[in-house]
Design goal:
The protein is of the alpha+beta class. It has helices at about 5-20, 70-80, 110-115, 125-130, 135-140, 150-160, 165-190, 195-215, 225-235, 240-250, 255-275, 290-295, 300-305; strands spanning about 30-35, 60, 85, 90, 105, 145.
């Protein structure tokens, strides 16, 4: 059973009854669920994931001290800590008295400040550009089991909707990286016999291509170690994730001719999907840099449009 399923079951069996019995007055202003850091919040956990930071706990998100004071928060933490330590074969670790736990009682402001830099998750377009996508993915992943007032869920919904100009700027940067690393630098490194540099070029190209696929799909790319798996779940293009995995796992210089063909295929796929989505003009020759400038030209805000197209997080 997945960690999210275990957490949900644990919450409804023990957590919600505890809240309704001991803290009925604060239920209207809190939220409970499982989201944030950890493979289980994305549904990517497996047996290997259980060796660290894996437990049947859940999160209780509470508003600021003007609504729930420190004493009530302390009592809530103590009540959470008193819930059964073991569940479905997993044991909850002791809560960190200095804070920083992934589970338990967490202020709204702490959760969103850690992931967006703003305690209310209110980001300008420039703010969305400053925050790496894997942090935004943590802010909106997982599942909220209960949120009567809807405040926490509303913040998550707002963050999930990346402003168009920010998304286009990131997409332009990803396409520019694809063009530079894959279409330009990779063959030049091969020609010089710089095979280590060629491999690095492949990695940078693949990362840019994965990011571009998520941006065109209007999704946040998660942390790099989960990005290939998440890519396989996108409704993007048949064979796309396989081409990326081949590039990341192939030898060098062995297979370099095939890699060059795969790079061009990946570029054409991303550009065609971006053009179909209205993010750029068609680019018949598959030039990723040309596509990057086309994407950049569609940005409405001149201050964002006129910054370097080579945007990287």
């Amino acid at each position: 059973m997945k960690g999210l399923d275990i957490s949900r079951s644990y919450y409804f069996e023990y957590g919600e009854p505890m809240l309704e019995r001991e803290f009925p007055e604060i239920i209207p202003v809190i939220a409970a669920g499982l989201c944030g850091s950890g493979s289980e919040c994305f549904g990517y956990d497996d047996v290997i994931s259980t060796d660290h930071d894996f437990d049947p706990g859940f999160c209780i998100f509470i508003p600021g001290e003007e609504v729930i004071d420190r004493r009530t928060a302390f009592l809530l933490e103590r009540a959470y800590a008193s819930l059964p330590r073991e569940y479905m074969g997993f044991r909850r670790p002791p809560l960190d008295p200095a804070g920083g736990s992934r589970r338990g009682v967490i202020r709204y402001s702490d959760f969103f400040l850690q992931r967006t830099g703003d305690p209310d998750g209110r980001l300008s377009v420039s703010g969305f550009l400053r925050v790496p996508d894997h942090y935004l993915a943590e802010a909106v992943n997982g599942e909220i089991f209960r949120d009567d007032c809807g405040v926490f869920s509303d913040i998550r919904a707002r963050l999930a909707d990346c402003p168009r100009d920010a998304r286009l700027k990131k997409l332009a940067g990803a396409l520019f990286t694809m063009g530079q690393a894959g279409q330009y630098n990779y063959p030049r490194c091969l020609a010089r016999g710089e095979y280590a540099a060629a491999r690095l070029s492949l990695f940078r190209f693949a990362e840019g291509a994965i990011h571009a696929a998520f941006l065109v799909s209007r999704r946040y790319m998660p942390y790099y170690k989960w990005a290939p798996r998440a890519l396989r779940e996108l409704d993007f293009a048949e064979g796309f994730s396989g081409a990326i995995e081949t590039l990341l796992t192939s030898g060098c210089p062995a297979g370099s001719e095939n890699n060059t063909d795969l790079i061009e295929s990946v570029c054409r796929t991303v550009i065609d999907r971006a053009a179909a989505a209205g993010d750029c003009d068609p680019v018949p020759d598959g030039g990723a840099e040309r596509a990057a400038y086309s994407v950049n030209d569609r940005i409405s805000d001149p201050n964002i449009r006129n910054t370097s197209v080579a945007f990287t997080e």
